[in-house]
Amino acid sequence: MASLSAAISRSSCFPPPNTTSLSNHRNIFHSQCRAFPLSRPSLFLRKGLTLPPGRESTSTRISASVADVSLNLSVEEKQLPKGDTWSVHKFGGTCVGTSQRIKNVAEIIIKDESERKLVVVSAMSKVTDMMYDLINKAQSRDENYVAALDVVLEKHSQTAHDLLDGDHLASFLSQLHQDINNLKAMLRAIYIAGHATESFTDFVVGHGELWSAQMLSLVIRKNGIDSKWMDTREVLIVNPTGSNQVDPDYSLSQQRLEKWYSRNPARVIIATGFIASTPQNIPTTLKRDGSDFSAAIMGALFQARQVTIWTDVDGVFSADPRKVSEAVILKTLSYQEAWEMSYFGANVLHPRTIIPVMRYGIPIIIRNIFNLSAPGTKICHPSVNEDEDKQNLQNFVKGFATIDNLALVNVEGTGMAGVPGTASAIFGAVKDVGANVIMISQASSEHSVCFAVPETEVKAVAEALQSRFRQALDAGRLSQVAVIPNCSILAAVGQKMASTPGVSATLFNALAKASINVRAIAQGCSEYNITVVIKREDCIKALRAVHSRFYLSRTTIAMGIIGPGLIGSTLLDQLRDQASVLKEEFNIDLRVLGIISSKSMLLTHYNGWLRKGIHVVTPNKKANSGPLDQYLSLRALQRQSYTHYFYEATVGAGLPIISTLRGLLETGDRILQIEGIFSGTLSYIFNNFKDGRAFSEVVAEAKEAGYTEPDPRDDLSGMDVARKVIILARESGLKLELSDIPVESLVPEPLRGCASAQEFMQQLPKFDQELTKKQEEAEKAGEVLRYVGVVDVTNKKGTVELRRYKKDHPFAHLSGSDNIIAFTTRRYQNQPLIVRGPGAGAQVTAGGIFCDILRLASYLGAPS
Ligand code: ADP
Ligand code: ASP
Ligand code: MG
Predict the structure, then answer these.
(1) What radius of gyration, in Å, describes the C-alpha atoms of the chain?
(2) How far apart are CA 848 and CA 830, in angstroms?
(3) Ligand 1 center to residue 315 CA distance, Å?
(4) How far is residue 88's CA from residue 293's CA, in Å, rounded to a whole number?
(5) Residue 313 CB–ligand 1 contact under 6 Å
(6) Mean pLDDT, residues 511-515
(7) For 579-630, what is each residue's pLDDT tens digit?
(8) Is the dihedral of CA 723, 725, 727, 729 positive or negative?
(9) Which helix (H) or strand (E) holds 145?
(10) Does 824 have pLDDT greater than 80?
């Protein structure tokens, strides 16, 4: 991907004011406060000013004594006081969604002990959508707008009846009916014209806030507290920017606010969120979800002590809680972090909320109206201590957010290199169609510029670029303007993360491990975010993968178990017994999420799983000992898909055979030969085939003891050993097929066709003689018979056969059903490296699988 090497992100276009200038603002604020001609200078001594030791109590006293005087409405009183005396609250749509909730909101406001309170409210939940729907219906000449308006009327009238009575109710209802009549007339005009202008639309949709603010204010009055409601269209003046955004005009708004306050000098003000006016007094809005922004502007105009944003979650989560169930609440965020989170899709906060309050260092607290005991998230300047606390990667990454429904546009061509003005021409064309560029990335070769825009805007963007660059495209200086649809952005956000070694590596590693392809990358020079563009369908998987990598202190592995037979159920027992130890002592959280029983193990499924990023751990030999081309493609796929495929238990059950071999190979040793007793059954049989006993008798004894397969021919044929030989041969780099391995079968030729195991066992004594002879010959020579598999790496061969070993050879001293494997290598040439131990049985096999699962956990980042 050409665009990887150097990248810029959209975030760098908005350099946040640096700390120096911020603290300057704070100082200006204090000096302004001190100079402010108010009857209550003590209000401003409360915070921020450094008093000599012992003076604090004086300031508190002054504050208390002046509070009594303030009840008289003097001329000064009508002048707008500013500063810490004000606390600003904003209640989102869900907070005022029903009459009961509006009562709760009133209670919270009343309980707040701040001296002055400015409360910004959204429309009741869903109302703004309903208002937009009215516009859509009217302009598409759907008469149902009339009925839909009735529903809006009914909803508010019902709520008012629940909340108010007497004069309050009457005055609200009279205003409501008047508004509805006006809306009806306006919608009728829209219906006739078949079109709504932007200001008509803004006028209509803002009514939800007008009604909720009036109702809330009346409920507070009903509780005996003087409160005024503010139609913020009279106060908040904004200029449209042309890209579905508005910029506040602070000085005009300040003048209007002072004027408004002189007429309404209340200590509790309930203001409408979302709505404002242009300097020409035309109603407008701060656009969807804009009430957070309203609250922040108000906070700045009043230079409030803090702005509390009340919503329906406990604060800002490390990721959207609807998408990542394990997201955690962030106690604090810096302004920049909060900005980045919201810009990149965390809709708990409108992105424009930060700048107004950051100018004055006013903290924002996000709190849950439905869970008052939760302290919420505080957004403020990072404290010095917090910086010192940051020792590990998690602390650098605060959260993750995503934006869906994007398309990437890639403008590519050799003619772009070194030509000044290309980027400006590209983004000029994009601006002309009014599209919003969310992220930009340019390769340092200047060969391509790629950027993300909302999917709805990409067609217009592509057309504009095609026409703007027609000549360059025709001349071949530009090769293409390509659109990659169905993309999402995933942003990791955190103070200083981009300059901390290891953060981006960990992020990309987590994505790779989840098999997620990254289409484009941008890392903000601001160092607050790393942004990647991925396929939309991968978005949630990617979000969960990176979140769990950074945020969960544990490595969590979700498992499915296929085939809960004897080994599977033993594994489940072992997992259950060990789970809490793994969690507490090793930080690994293994979760069995599914168990599927399956009669036939469909090995071709491995490829499908690996391709999907699912790791495979198996004790089943078939895939690795099947046709060579299938095996090689499985391994290739596993590497490409960055997944893991572990199969230690295929050879020697729980014994570390594959891992030993890998260790030797990876550290540069050369394998010369692997020789071993790989069958627990045949080990048992030959360990006991001595002292004049008949071979058939030992086989019968082994069968009786449960050491053999139900039909002992499956063991005696040697095929199981041959499969293990093939697995080890391939692991050592030999390209052998199972048919390349000569296998000495211990099943006498005439008995291979016996219909049943029983018949075979009956006939077997007739054939004892041949093996008895071999055994006696060996005995005479001071040797023993052993059934072994051999991988002769030097000669690229494998074999399974009966061999004789001196009585002092390690193979001669086995007991029970032990396996023994000898690795002869360049390093272990004179004395082979030997692994020995029980190589069959449910406990040790399940243990081998368990070991692979933990190996997987460590590959996936579990602490070692
Ligand atoms: P309100 O109407 O109060 O303004 P919003 O719906 O605009 O509420 O914002 C709150 C919602 O934001 C939450 O319900 C939550 O689902 C969503 N959300 C998305 N990302 C995050 C995040 N990182 N942290 C918290 N909430 C988030
Ligand atoms: N009511 C407006 C909206 O739904 C503004 C807000 O609630 O923030 O978009
Ligand atoms: Mg909101």
Answers:
(1) 38
(2) 29
(3) 9
(4) 12
(5) yes
(6) 84
(7) 999 888 887 888 888 888 766 555 568 888 888 878 999 998 888 999 999 9
(8) negative
(9) helix 145-163
(10) yes
**Residue 185 binned pLDDT confidence (cut-offs 50, 70, 90):** very high
CA of 339 to the centre of ligand 3 (A): 14
137 is catalytic: no
Q: Is 832 in the pocket of ligand 2 (CB under 6 A)?
A: no
What spatial distance separates the first Cα and last Cα of the chain, rounded to whole Å? 34
Looking at the chain, how many residues does it have? 864
Query: 291: CA distance to ligand 2 center in Å?
Result: 6
- Of residues 553, 550, 548, 513, the one with CA closest to residue 530: 550
Distance 224 CA to ligand 2 centre (A): 29
**Range in 273-277, 284-288, 499-503, 685-689 the model is least confident about:** 499-503
Amino acid in position 157: S
* Cα–Cα–Cα angle for 405, 407, 409, rounded to 5 degrees: 165
- Which ligand 2 atom minimizes the distance to the CA of 292? 8
Find out whether the beta carbon of 311 lies less than 6 Å from any atom of ligand 1.
yes
826 lines ligand 1 (CB under 6 A): no
The catalytically annotated residue of 90, 117, 703, 724 is 724
209 touches ligand 1 (CB under 6 Å) = no
Counting ligands in written order, the one closest to the CA of 311 is: 1
Work out which ligand 1 atom sits closest to the CA atom of 91: 3
Check: CB of residue 3 under 8 Å from CB of residue 518.
no
Q: Name residue 487's beta-bridge partners.
A: 406, 535
Residue 478 in tokens: 């530009």
Under 8 Å between Cβ of 494 and 551: no
Looking at ligand 1, which residue's alpha carbon is closest to its atom 6? 348
* Cα-to-centroid distance, 208 and ligand 2 (Å): 9
Integer CA distances (angstroms), 568 to 615, 618, 657, in order: 17, 10, 21
φ and ψ at residue 127, rounded to 5 degrees: -65, -40
**The CA-based dihedral angle spanning residues 342, 346, 350, 353, taken in that order and rounded to the nearest 10 degrees:** -40
The pair phi, psi for residue 60, each rounded to 5°, is: -65, -40
Question: Does 128 contact ligand 2 (Cβ within 6 A)?
Answer: yes
CA 38 → CA 70, 75, 159, 529, distances in Å?
A: 11, 10, 40, 44
What proportion of the chain, given as a percentage, has pLDDT over 70?
87
Does ligand 1 come within 6 angstroms of the Cβ of 312?
yes
